[in-house]
Amino acid sequence: MPKLNENYQNLKESYLFVEIAHRVAEYTKANPDKKVIRLGIGDVTLPLEPLAVDALHEGVDAMTSTETFKGYGPEQGYEFLRNAVVDYYAENGVSIHADDVFISDGAKSDTGNIGDLFATDNVVLIPDPVYPVYVDSNIMTGRQITYIDANADNNFLPLPDKNVHADIIYICSPNNPTGATYNKEQLKEWVDYALENEAVILFDSAYEAFITDPELPRSIYAIEGAKKCAIEFCSLSKTAGFTGTRCGYTIVPKELVFKASNGEEMSVNAMWNRRQSTKFNGTSYIVQKGAAAVFTKEGMAQCKENIAYYQENARVISETLAKKGIRYFGGENSPYIWFECPNGMDSWDFFDYLLNNAQVVGTPGAGFGKNGQNFFRLTSFGTHESTKEAMERFEKLF
Ligand code: MLT
After folding, report:
1. Which residue, by CA, sits nearest to atom 4 of ligand 1?
2. Are residues 271 and 357 in the same domain?
């Protein structure tokens, strides 16, 4: 009989969004005549941009002839896409090297898999509330987690505590679920702390394309010293509507080097390369063709149009909450709006209340950690029509 990874016994029974889908499915089965509006999981609704679609078609066409057919590609991603990522960073004022870019099937997989590079007995620092993948993947490995409180008092942007040591630090900015975004000074505090503690920052920038304030950093590498202490994860899921198409990229700078217990220096870039070569066969050529089109000037202009569409939804949601005197965070520089449950309600109770009385699905804050107990998340990724209708129904309830 195999010995199982019993750390799985320490996980919640199901992943947050699976639990929500299950509850909604039960509700719709019992109430087939009710029109449910889903503003729960951060999944996009607009179709892929035309330029990406054309490039995907070109990718398919290439597969039809012996001359252009592609089999296994480089595990790190095709050079044309790695270079496109480098150019994209450069346009945002950040210089990275193509060898530091690893193309993947999305930030969820990479943030979940990166733990392969680190020993089990590290001190892992995770903000609460947080994207559940960081917590679950560390529980699966059996790592002890130290939580740092993100709450209304610190605008959901906790800063390092110099008296607490950490080896691995997770940061997501713009934040999922709270929508809060670190400015340069705050991010510098984290970088300085990581350098001082010889810690690594795992920086999730999946929502960077929603930043409209030019003063806010879209990459941790906008902060001096970050290449010596940070890995950055990003994705085209929210930037270009690739949630179903799947493409992301992870930046592991060559400067990121730590000493092993035998005194040898180990390059994290080389380790990730080794890990990916063994366990990953690369993102499909077709998808990478589509992704490269996103990074062109015209492709980015089309992305911006879609993002502006979602930003209008965020405005409608925020406006309704403000009108009702409900305290909220995010909604600017972020697709998420995070608000206090009315009348001090518990977030899962509020989830049921909203589903039963307005047929609107959101995400209960408790699903992201204890500090989300009385908070709720709505996403701006719906259509204009459904978002407007959801907020009209919401308004009638309170
Ligand atoms: C969310 O709703 O938090 C996101 O869709 C999760 C994800 O991107 O995996």
Report:
1. 42
2. no
Domain boundary among 264, 295, 326: 295
In this predicted model, what pLDDT tens digit does every residue of 308-348 receive, in sequence order?
999 999 999 999 999 999 999 999 999 999 999 999 999 99
Q: 43 CA to middle of ligand 1, Å?
A: 7
Asked if the peptide bond before residue 132 counts as cis, ω within 30 degrees of 0, the response is: no
Using the atom order of ligand 1, give the atom closest to the CA of residue 176: 3
- Are 91 and 202 members of one domain? yes
d(CA 146, CA 169): 10
3 state SS of 148: strand
What's at 140, amino acid-wise? M
Q: Are residues 181 and 257 in the same domain?
A: yes
pLDDT digits over 53-88, tens only?
Answer: 999 999 999 999 999 999 999 999 999 999 999 999
Residue 3 CA, ligand 1 centroid: distance in Å: 32
pTM given for the model? 0.97
1 is a domain residue: no
CA 52 to chain CA centroid, Å, is: 21
Beta carbons of 363 and 16 less than 8 angstroms apart: yes
Residues belonging to the chain: 398
Q: How far is the CA of 42 from the centre of ligand 1 (A)?
A: 5
